[in-house]
Hints:
Blueprint: H1 34-41, H2 45-53, H3 60-73, H4 79-84, E1 91-96, H5 102-115, E2 121-126, H6 131-142, E3 148-152, H7 160-166, E4 170-175, E5 183-187, H8 189-202, E6 208-213, H9 219-234, E7 241-245, H10 251-264, E8 270-273, H11 276-288, E9 298-300, H12 306-310, E10 317-319, H13 322-338, E11 346-348, E12 352-354, H14 361-365
Parallel strand pairs: 1-2, 1-3, 3-4, 4-5, 5-11, 6-7, 6-8, 8-9
Antiparallel strand pairs: 10-12
Helix pairs in contact: 1-2, 1-3, 5-13, 8-9, 10-11
Amino acid sequence: MTARQRSTFPSDPGPAWAGDGAPSGASGTARATIRDVAKLAGVSLMTVSRAINTPHLVSDKTLKEIHRAIDRTGYIPNRLAGGLSGSRTGQVTVLVPSLSNLVFSDLLNGMASVLEHRGMQMMVGNYHYTQKKLEEQIPRFMGWSPDALVLVGPVPKSAQPLLRRRGIPVVETVELIDPPFDCNVGISHEAAGRAMAAHLAGLGYRRMAAVSANAGLEQRTSQRIRGFCRHLEESGFPPPTRMELQGRSSIAVGKQAMRRILETGPRPEAVFCSNDDLAFGAMMACVEAGLKVPDDMGIAGFNALDIALQCIPSITTVRVDRFRIGEIAARMLLGRLEGTTRPGEKADVGFSVVPGRSTDRESAQT
């Protein structure tokens, strides 16, 4: 039987393995095989395969022995060969709009906390908030035969035929999508915007403004602002001043937006920013203009980042458990792979308004 014939195990759903030969020795030229690992650990080939593909099905004691043997032999599974042979690769593709945004770092960490215990790895792509790049990346990553796909936001229409043909689990995250392409976990960003409007109104603010950036490409931003404005309109409040700047959200853009609001007048009593970076920048612009927060201007943001919670005064914001979204997304795709989760499953993780000193005028005056 040749090395190629020995590369897969018909009774095992796991991936194919790297070639045959003796364990790597002093020369470092020979590649270790799954047989070397099995022999050293004193277990069957099937048990080694399960330990790598589905470690939750193997006892802790046996896992330790196999991992020790893998370390000693230097054995490396050939995941790509498994994908080419039609079995699972243990890879999950995750496409996010930014790698520098802490929001998506939390999402990835939540997924990793579940997938790593199941012997699965993430391949992460960054489409830089650009729809065209997202549409290009989906077929490119499908070429690596991932077992599942996770997206921030909805599946682009152009990619839906390809994904239906591939038939792999797809989980859309961060926002609620109706109906989902497959499975979905997130929150209603419009409801979150409404909740912030109701919170500020309850504090006595009446004339307000709404600040966003890059809303044309970041639809969740648009949903928050839309919910905020609609609640004020339905409650009989004056229409909020809208300030939408192009480019990525940043502290600098938040300062720029606040300066424009102060220059154009009449001055609002409170400003809701679509994220905390913008809110922090808006607060800095108020300080530079000699305005006191919250006495002269209330400031609110979104995401409950440390920059908002730890600054002085702390910024009123909206908290979303992004780590939990990642955990649930990972469990959903595992359930789809194992047949325990049906297509169409959705999960709303909810949100909460976190009051800060930036809108608390009564405390500021005492």
